[in-house]
Amino acid sequence: MSETEAVTGSDVSSGGCLCRKVRFTVTGPVDDPHICACKHCAKRSGSPFQWWVGFPMPGLEWTGAEPTWFDTHPGKTARGFCPDCGSHIAARDHGDDTVIGILATALDHHDTDPDLVPTNLNRLPEAAPWLAQAG
């Protein structure tokens, strides 16, 4: 299989960054697909919210370069991004080796996988005031 082909299967997803340097597969069920509208996600991403999904950490495999990690909440949470193109890829909490948070848009088929549909909107009180009115 070439690097540009998506891994498919009932519980396997592939993804990566814009420049394709950082690539990964995740195996296992999707956990807690949600939109986060906190000020922190907005500031870091340049967007009013981000779309997160969790996967079992043991099912994560970096098939390209591993992202560069930055402690956005020192000692608590690190965020992974591509050092070349800047794409945001993942988040992990220190001391929790059970779940990896993946930005849904980093997944190759985020637009067609029904398991990724967000089930809630987190931190709405912190969101841009117009977000709750948009729609």
Description of the structure:
It comes from Streptomyces rubiginosohelvolus. Pfam families: GFA. Residues 13-125 form the CENP-V/GFA domain. Keywords: Lyase, Metal-binding, Zinc. With 135 residues, this protein is mostly beta strands. The protein has one domain: glutathione-dependent formaldehyde- activating enzyme (gfa). Helices cover 5% and strands 38% of the residues. The protein has one helix spanning 39-45; strands at residues 12-16, 23-27, 31-36, 50-56, 60-62, 68-73, 77-81, 88-93, 99-103, 120-122. The chain has a seven-stranded mixed beta sheet. A three-stranded antiparallel beta sheet has the order 1-2-5, with no helix packed on it. A hairpin with a 6-residue loop joins β7 (77-81) and β8. The longest helix has 7 residues, at 39-45.
H and E order: EEEHEEEEEEE
Which runs of at least 5 residues are low in confidence (pLDDT < 50)? 1-9
| Structural class by sheet pairing and helices | mainly beta
Output the CATH class name.
Alpha Beta
The assigned CATH architecture is Alpha-Beta Complex
Whole-number total of structural domains: 1
The shape, in one word, is globular
Tally of alpha and pi helices:
1
